[in-house]
């Protein structure tokens, strides 16, 4: 974590609930979400480049541009049909997106740049944003992301990729379990890929 990001996190903690309540989320932030009635749903959720987070039983939920209380209300409303009573949620900022200079953000990558940014979410040891060497494989990404959790559905990992030409998102389904056993061709990642490791279903 850079000094700037550390200072911002520390300032939020010192300011207490008022600052946290007014903080507006952005892509790259990581949220800590806890459901009092069902601890199996507790997890970190990354705000993706499209401004959403993914959560079990709900799917994609808008987060960027909203406050923590607004996201908590959206999650609570989405989960409510699955509980006998309206669930109680705690939503906090686990980490803040790294700031980039405007020049870096708008300029095209230089030929000498050999790093790509890949986002990971779901049943990962360390979900979030990672920088990898160009040409890195999905297995290498998983290794740097702390591997998968015991609840991961490794046979149906998704990689979402936005085509630079038309902006259409294409989803690839990868059997990571097979790859780890030495079967199948290596899956190479591209800049901006989003790797989603879903939760394993009962008896899967």
From TrEMBL:
Pfam (any one): SLBB_2
**What keywords were assigned to this record?**
Cell outer membrane, Ion transport, Lipoprotein, Membrane, Palmitate, Polysaccharide transport, Porin, Signal, Sugar transport, Transmembrane, Transmembrane beta strand, Transport
Q: Which GO terms describe its biological process?
A: monoatomic ion transport
Concerning Gene3D superfamilies, the annotation shows:
Outer membrane lipoprotein wza domain like (3.10.560.10), wza like domain (3.30.1950.10)
Membrane topology is: Multi-pass membrane protein
Main location per UniProt?
A: membrane
Q: Which residues form the signal peptide?
A: 1-20
Every copy of the Polysaccharide export protein N-terminal domain together lies at: 19-93
* Highest rank taxon of the organism: Bacteria
One annotated GO molecular function: polysaccharide transmembrane transporter activity
By what name is this protein known? Polysaccharide export outer membrane protein
Organism of origin:
Litoreibacter halocynthiae
């Amino acid at each position: 974590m850079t000094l700037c990001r550390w200072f911002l996190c520390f300032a939020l903690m010192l300011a207490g609930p008022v600052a946290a309540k007014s903080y507006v989320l952005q892509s790259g932030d990581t949220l800590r979400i806890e459901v009092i009635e069902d601890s199996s749903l507790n997890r970190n959720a990354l705000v993706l480049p499209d401004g959403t987070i993914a959560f079990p039983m709900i799917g994609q939920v808008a987060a960027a541009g909203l406050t923590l209380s607004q996201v908590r209300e959206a999650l609570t409303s989405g989960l409510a049909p699955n509980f006998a009573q309206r669930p109680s949620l705690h939503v906090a900022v686990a980490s803040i997106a790294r700031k980039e200079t405007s020049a870096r953000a708008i300029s095209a990558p230089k030929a000498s740049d050999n790093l790509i940014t890949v986002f990971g979410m779901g049943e990962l040891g360390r979900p979030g944003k990672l920088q990898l060497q160009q040409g890195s494989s999905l297995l290498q990404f998983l290794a740097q992301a702390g591997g998968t959790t015991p609840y991961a559905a490794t046979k149906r990992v998704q990689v979402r990729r936005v085509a630079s030409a038309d902006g259409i998102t294409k989803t690839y389904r990868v059997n990571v379990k097979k790859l780890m056993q030495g079967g199948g061709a290596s899956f190479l990642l591209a800049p901006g890929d989003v790797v989603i490791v879903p939760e394993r279903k009962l008896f899967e």
